[in-house]
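User: Modeling request: complex.
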Amino acid sequence: MGAAMLSRTADHLYWMARYIERAENMARMLDVTYRMSLVQNAAQSEAALWVPLLHISDTVEDFHKAYDEVTAHNVIYYIAMDSRNLSSIYNCLRAARENAHAVRVAMSSEMWENINSLWLEFQQMDKKLILDSGLSEFCDWVKSRSHLFRGVTYGTMLRDDGFRFTRLGGFIERADDMARLLDVKYHLLLPSASDVGGAVDYYEWSALLRSASAYEAYLKVYRDAVMPLRVAELLVLRHDMPRSLHACMDELTTILDQLTGDAGRECKRLAGEMHSSLHYGRIEDIFRGGLHEFLEAFLRQNNRLGVEIQRTYLNAPIINEPEKPNVGELQSQG
Amino acid sequence: MASIDYKNKLLTAFDESVDSKKSVRQVYAPYADWLAGKDFSQLAQKSRDAELLFRRVGITFAVYGEEEGAERLIPFDVIPRILAASEWGKLSDGACQRVRALNMFLNDIYHGQDIIKAGIMPESILTNEMYRPEMQGVDVPGGVYAHIAGIDIVRTEADTFYVLEDNLRTPSGVSYMLEDRRMMMRLFPELFRQYPISPVEHYPQLLLENLRAVAPRGATSDPTVVLMTPGAYNSAYFEHAFLAQQMGIELVEGRDMFVKGNAVFMRTTEGPKKIDVIYRRIDDDFIDPLAFRQDSMLGVPGLVSVYRNGGVALANAIGTGVADDKATYTYVPDMIKFYLGEEPILSNVPTYKLSKEDDRKYVLDNLAELVVKEVQGSGGYGMLVGPTSSKAQIEEFRLRILADPDNYIAQPTLALSTCPTMVEQGVAPRHVDLRPYVLTGKTTSVVPGALCRVAMTEGSLVVNSSQGGGTKDTWVLQC
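Assistant: Request completed. Predicted assembly structure:
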């Protein structure tokens, strides 16, 4: 067979990877917030601690339709298990498995068995136990299953466009999740821009680093106290930090260049533009213009890139049929 | 205590493993020795291992009418059915002979209709619902209609095999033949060292070879073959995905394809790509809303028109249903004589047609001893098994027959052979059938193996998976 693949297959692989990555990032954020809630802090109310999670996943409104009150229990349930939340870990894993099921032929059998057993294990979990005392264990499970899936993908999948679309989905999602996480955290933790160089709540900031598996990396790179400016630099601009925005764009531009065919000109242009602003950007300049503004612009561009990938490759219009409307970027794919 | 002692079981039918004097048949002798060294809990553990593996691999089927996405396992029995080389020789020759004749019949009925002119089949065959006038006069590549045929065979005596049914539309189950074998090799590698078991693993390659051989004129020397599935919620989706993967071809749905000019294309990330051969696992009715059911969302508009003009090949061809209809079935021995000039190697089950007055009277007088089937029924639905039915069930069925006698045929209740099978109480005899898969491209052939279906309920003669039947690996011995 040639390099060409079914657009629908590419679409399912792309969304499978996005949902796995989203589940992992939701678990990371959930776990960090949960750990912070265990550190007694009289100054902070329960709601103030848990609401940011809803901001990050853009679900504040929907949450309030489902619950009266922002409590730890409600938010944990909503983010981890609630079928009404399209971005809940439950729904992400279900959607990832459904996408995989629809194209199990396009991946190695190890990949399929891995994602299928992930779903079977999840279904057999004691949901009540997770909510009562096993949340960290659960989040670790989600993270390690995501690592495992990435590993089996790298270790067994043919290096064809299917592999590239799978990775594309993962990095687009990671860039989106990381930018949202940073935006919400900086907004909440650092209301005044003049504080960026000063000493801050050690726990809050180290928790943010830990949620991106970046705490040890920070210590290694800066050998110094945790400072907001450097945290942002590490997670936005450092190309050697695997969950940074820059690292995501490094991967995305490379993958887009490797895709066969010449349809992707606009995708490559968009990605290249985003990449160069991270590659040549300086953190001082970013803060001067406002980190929030920078991240908002990044999220907008990343979203446009996602829509363009969808339009160019995944919905692949045919010659004698009217073009389909664009699929909204965050719309879930059965 | 669950028991593994099989020889003291009550046998009511021909048993594959022991004879009427309770001594082990030769083909089962090494297996029986091996089994004697095991205790039941070891076997039960293997059985649980198998279930876990099947679930993890997703070898499941979707159940209609249950919660969306509900997936179930077909029970897998760890005790194999074993056939001697000589037994298989007869079965495979007989099945291939039948399929050759059936393909010639299909070519004839859609062209010159010599079999009607010769007075062997009545003209009424042309009014059969499964006869597709759209196919009249259409030349299909190589004259092959049934590229894949599943022939259901049962045994009642050492040398008595009957063909129960020819499945010529979209026969399923071959993935279980392959996966059951893989599972047995994993669970009991030591048995494969002892037994000279014929391999079946090359089935997908043989299938692909046959599919490539029927590419239409005008295709390149490297034709593009795809497998068309109704989608991930179809009950046989696992098999569709499995076969596509094993053949290394694309698994496509109707929405992935479109027609332009006299060709069918699939949408790819690099633009449209032309398709030459479609191994379709979707019924005629749903394949093209312009030709058949207009409400089908699963098909490709215009596909049948391209097919009729020779722009694409379909396997199986459209209109094969006229040959596996239960009313046509009765003529297959005559077809073999007419087209091949040979004597049938395998027999038909004697069949009464309720459209005939004599037959109808006999059947209605003897319902309690007979099996009555709908002419176009499948999957074990809509049938009456007289000896295991209550009086009330029989009377209810009688009314259904009287309302539409042409829609039914009846056969004597065959005592299907039994095979030792794992059940909760130990190892016990259960009734089995056999479905080898016959492939036709340039030639007709069959891999030495089959799907063996087993009725898991004591005494039951219904082996269909939709009715709770299970499967067994079938070992064809090389010598």
